[in-house]
Design goal:
Length: 308
């Protein structure tokens, strides 16, 4: 049972399995003109020639070996009667037009479009001099940035942009942009409560939110701040945002404002329910739709509730 011989490290079972490592060693040595110590003398297979659209998203020979060896290892695991493992923290997914996680990338792109579309609707219908117009535009721009990086990250998550600590720069930008998006929705709530207060109070509140973002950005970019810690921070501030929108409008908004707040309350409730997908992880359905991609797909329509 070669697939079961695993080195127990912080990496995923799949990429630490014996069959995967042997495949990578043989493939890279034979096909990529890379000298690999103790590499197998026989290549398991010859990777296909990279198409133009695959080269366009920076796939190279070693990446091609990794991709094909994933499926070689998956077949070995299944033949041994073992469950499909994760590789590098992700479930195996088929690559389409050079896109590494096609479903997540597509849903992220649709979220980006929805965010852009709702921003345009807002600008067409709300006067710029309205008290909260700048705050909502800022929130939308932060969202567009977050979905852009999510699309890029799911299109091609690689180590070619290693930055500072050796972790993929795109991955960190995806994490950081998502955190900024959470803080932006929280800041909308805070500014909505404080918009009649003196400017100094609003500046202090905004400064506090910015310091939270800056502190998290420093940890992500300049320290070994892992995925688990990042998730804990996002869950904390995400929970504060959801609970804040659910309960604070009853205390701080008048009756008319509470009517409008119901749409956002419904939106954050749906976001909370959809987050369950991130907890109950499972292998990709049809090798395309994993829990994370379905989470992205479930949020597309929520943008229209928030802006309403």
């Amino acid at each position: 049972m070669l697939a079961y011989l695993v080195s127990w490290t912080n990496a995923s079972i799949g990429d630490q399995s014996y069959v995967y490592k042997e495949c990578i060693s043989a493939c890279v040595s034979a096909e990529c003109n890379v000298s690999v110590p103790n590499a197998s003398t026989s290549s398991l297979y010859t990777p296909p020639v990279l198409a133009l659209h695959e080269r366009a998203v920076v796939w190279n020979c070693e990446d091609e070996c990794k991709y094909n060896c994933i499926w070689w290892a998956v077949e070995a695991f299944q033949q041994d009667g073992l469950p499909v493992p994760q590789f590098y923290g992700k479930w195996p997914q088929v690559r389409i037009f050079g896109i590494q996680e096609p479903a997540s990338a597509l849903f992220s792109l649709l979220n980006l479009f929805a965010q852009w579309h709702t921003l345009n609707l807002f600008c067409e219908n709300i006067p710029w001099r309205s008290p909260m117009s700048f705050t909502w535009v800022f929130f939308s721009l932060v969202g567009i940035n977050a979905w852009f990086w999510s699309t890029v990250f799911h299109t091609y998550d690689t180590r070619f942009t290693e930055y500072v600590t050796g972790t993929c720069f795109m991955k960190r930008m995806d994490y950081l942009s998502a955190f900024g998006y959470v803080l932006a929705l929280l800041s909308v709530l805070i500014m909505r409560i404080l918009y009649r207060q003196p400017t100094l109070i609003k500046v202090v509140a905004g400064g506090f939110i910015f310091m939270c973002f800056a502190g998290h950005a420093y940890r992500l970019l300049f320290t070994r701040f892992g995925y688990d810690q990042n998730m804990q921070v996002n869950v904390l501030f995400g929970s504060l945002t959801i609970l804040g929108w659910l309960f604070l409008p009853r205390l701080a908004f008048d009756r008319v404002q509470q009517e409008y707040a119901k749409y956002i309350q419904l939106a954050v409730s749906l976001i909370g329910c959809a987050s369950v997908l991130e907890i109950f992880d499972f292998p990709a359905i049809l090798w395309l739709f994993d829990a994370h991609s379905l989470w992205h797909g479930s949020t597309i329509g929520i943008h229209y509730l928030i802006i309403k």
